[in-house]
Amino acid sequence: MRSALVSIPARTSVFPLGSAAVPTSSPLLRFRNGLNIPSDGEYGLAIVGEGEGRRRLVQTLLSKYRFHPHPPAPGIFPYAYDWGLEPHTQGTTEPIQSPPSIRHLTFSKPSATGEFTDFTARYGALQEEDKDTLLQFFRNSLFPAPKEDAIAAVAAILRIEHLLELPLVALSSGQTRRSRIAAGLLAAPRMLILEDPFAGLDVQSRKEIARMLGRVNSGAVNLKTTSQDARHKEEDGMRLVLSLRGTGTIGLPGYVTHIARVMGGDVEMLGKEEYVDKVKGEEETQHVVPDMGRQAVTQSAESSTQPVVDVQGVSITYGETKVLDNVSWRIHPGQRWHLQGSNGCGKTTLLSLILGHHPKSFSLPAETLSLFSKPRREVATPTLRRRIGHASPEIFAAFPRSMGLSAGEAVGTGYEGVFSRRRMTEAQRARVQRLLEPFVDLLGRRRTPASRSSTKSTLDLIYDTDFSHFPPNQQALLLFLRAIVSRPLLLILDEASQGMDEETWSRCRVLLDQEWAEIAHDAKTATGSEQAVVVVSHWEEEVPWEAGQGRVLRLHEGKVVHQE
Ligand SMILES: Nc1ncnc2c1ncn2[C@@H]1O[C@H](COP(=O)(O)OP(=O)(O)OP(=O)(O)O)[C@@H](O)[C@H]1O
């Protein structure tokens, strides 16, 4: 075995860069029993635990923090491996910058360059600038430029050969994720850190990709031999480090041998078996608290209400490809639907017709699409925006970060379903504050010196803080609150929990239960109507109602294959 890629001794702590040499504050992380990543041999690492802790550990691996105590540096601490950097940068104990051979792939950030983000462009006639295909992206936008055989090898690994000639914007979110993993592999770094690579992937894809990543990690597939990057020796493999949401054992790829578990600021290294035993033991001793807040779902009788959505025999075709094929679907007030189907089967396209994002939405024959008891073509799009609450990875990517909207204003844009600042009534401001309240401890963690000296309450400070100043997982939370703020007649949660921590999402679920109980109560006592809900998720456990309490619509290659 050669040297370690990463070697962090036991009892090392990390602090923000620029903090005092003799630490005066508590560390960001403490490494209980160190962290060593060998450069070769059978070894697979997954980081699990609290979201903020996992992020800090990733930042540590990217050399974004200062270490204490300063260890005798074998290379560029914490890296023991010779990354092929200039001699003068070696032997330093201060982190300088991540070695170029480490790549970090995160899916929770909106893309800085704009690629993969424009969510409505894909439905209409494509603009010239949106016509770039996946293949062109791989050829022209990656550095170092991959060789053709590398592209072919990676496309085969990730089963995206059939997508190479498609425009980037046409890819579904799962297809986009596979393509981004492919781009990460094509860069052929010495170490690739992937954050939540399996979120948004269907069950089959998750298994396939976990297996393929295992082969890359073990060196069975060596992409270096096909890379043009001269920094690497051909025999160098690629180490993959996965950061995975959740502390459970579900979703751990088979090839993973070691776990770095982050809890309460402590990083503990465990062998996989040791970890699995520990988690099982903890689960057994955990007190199961009955969920008093959870309401039994009352599924409205179909006959007694007018449907909020009535789709009858809709088909959508791009060139030769039939993306929706004779789809029919009725959604009544109070119903909960889980829209299912593998990546690329047409779920988002179907929802885009209902949401009014798809240009065909307005031009479909009146009898094929009715919304809120009227033919779609008689319902103005701003009315749809007001009546439908919507959270999705596409909204997350597209929501403006440069307009200076505060967190409260961002949530308030949900009243009109717009992306721009709007005036809110006092009652609406109060409602936004009430929604923020259960999350104050999560959203208020990053207090600045200025905010500490402010006389405002933490809730007011959060309300006024610029939306873009929150980390991505908290932005996802704010956009979820935006979707529910107006108590819309139809709520569409399309992979809404993507990017959120488990703790945050479980609180969102409690909030949803409360909301639905209140809406149901109002519907009985006043003239209101119960909320219809559509959830898209590839993870059963993330559907916010008990199994069997909702309905299911399953698509396969654009066709409805199951409806109950
Ligand atoms: N302009 C286009 N030309 C060709 N195919 C397209 C175009 N736009 C979309 N598609 C294809 O339509 C299919 C449906 O995409 P859609 O986003 O609806 O899938 P999805 O079920 O939501 O997938 P995911 O689970 O990955 O989000 C995909 O296979 C996509 O590649």
List the helices and strands and how they pair.
Blueprint: E1 4-8, E2 12-16, E3 29-31, E4 35-38, E5 45-49, H1 51-61, E6 65-68, E7 102-105, H2 134-141, H3 148-157, H4 173-186, E8 191-195, H5 203-218, E9 239-243, E10 258-263, E11 266-271, H6 272-285, E12 309-318, E13 321-331, E14 336-340, H7 347-355, H8 360-363, E15 369-371, E16 374-375, H9 381-387, E17 388-391, H10 393-398, H11 407-412, H12 426-436, H13 440-443, H14 449-452, H15 458-464, H16 472-484, E18 490-494, H17 502-525, E19 532-536, E20 551-556, E21 559-563
Bound molecules: adenosine-5'-triphosphate (ATP).
Adenosine-5'-triphosphate binds next to helix 4, strand 13 and helix 7.
Textual characterization of the structure:
The chain is 30% helix and 19% strand. It is an alpha/beta fold. It has a 9-stranded mixed beta sheet, sandwiched between helices. A 6-stranded mixed beta sheet has the order 17-18-19-14-20-21, with helices on both faces. The chain binds adenosine-5'-triphosphate. Residues 122, 166, 170-175, 318, 321, 323, 341, 343-349 line the site of adenosine-5'-triphosphate. Adenosine-5'-triphosphate (ATP) binds next to helix 4, strand 13 and helix 7.
CATH architecture of the largest domain: 3-Layer(aba) Sandwich
Number of distinct beta strands: 21
Helix content: 25-40%
The chain-level structural class is: alpha/beta
| Strand order in space, largest sheet | 6-2-3-11-10-5-9-8-7
**What name does CATH use for the topology of the largest domain?**
Rossmann fold
Ligands? adenosine-5'-triphosphate
The best one-word shape is globular
Biggest sheet record? 9 strands, mixed
Strand content: 15-25%
